[in-house]
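Attaching the record inline, Q. Sequence:
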Amino acid sequence: MRKPFVEAVLKHVKPEASVFLTGDLGFMALEPVRDAFGERFINAGVAEQNMISAAAGLAKTGLEVWVYSIAPFCYARPFEQIRNDVCLHRLPVHLVGNGGGYGYGVMGSTHHAIEDYGVLLALQGMKAFVPGFDADLDEIVPRMRQWDGPSYLRLGRDELPSDFALPAYRPWRRLTIGAGPLIAVAGPLAGSIMRAVNDLEAALRPEIWVVSELPLEVCPPPEEFAIRLESAPAVWVVEEHVAQGGFGRMLSAWVLERGYRPKSFRHWYAAGYPSGIYGSQEFHRPKVGSAPRRSGKLS
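Structure, as predicted:
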């Protein structure tokens, strides 16, 4: 999603009022931003803590600040600076992490981001954006700019089926209609699930929703989703993120606090590295966890 992100920045962000920082990453993608921003495009080098503190200082002067890196280098390495310099002052610094979930595959756990939005949403004033598809970036970048506080954008890979007409962007979007399970998916995994169930008859086909903005206190489920919570044969939540702090835990609390009683509720999440082996994103995805069991396959 790097290219549509760059296109959205060039379309919606004014260089004369903004600064774009990168931690020595983004080659073969960010060059158009570099050319448009000129001296307001800063390569901060492999110094992510300094980059976040500098971003906070620039935001304090009234500039719109964007910070880009591989996802774990964007949120994990400089976590203290995000907490103390950005969030405790509720500064509008926009963090952009590329390669969400297992996106960086064989580079291993140091390059994976399977606890990113859960970690960041524990901080004050943070909002997370998890686009499901390339087209979402044209809507999400302006929404990040409108948010009164820090934000995090998790870039992944567009997996939209080629023959699917994507509905207009919303934080919660219904992608398919069916009498099967009600499935809520955080981000790009929705596309893969749609391809997998596309040929099922209506009685078995799930109703799939893609969720692209968190936390639920800011972007709660719409009424159409809530109505189906009790009538659906099962409710499944799917995300490429660990269970703790994840979307599934957020939604289960939301459901419980409001007194809904789904017939069945299951959470499919990133289980880490149960095999002890690193591989591609496709290798890791089937090894997801499922509550209440320790592990399982989505089928």
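The chain has eleven helices and 13 strands. The longest helix spans residues 48-60.

More tomorrow.
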